[in-house]
Amino acid sequence: MCLDGEIFLKYAKAERELCDEAGAVLARIISAIQSRHGISIAELRVTMDWSHQVNGWPAANCVMVREKEGDTAPVTETSRVDNPPDDRLERRL
Known about the structure:
alpha+beta
């Protein structure tokens, strides 16, 4: 296997692991936020800002995408979250 293939495989495995571990936690957080605000989130993108840390945690830039009723063009809403994770986040060992 060439070096590029090995690197790709490492990232693919890491991506799958991240999805497996973060999926359940994110689903609970998203569900709670949707309920509190009476909204429906169709898609969520999270970018970690490792250069901007607060209390030892990297900042998260979140982009929520929803489909406007009767419109096929997505509407995006962006918010920056600089707070470290709270007790709702579970750590898997």
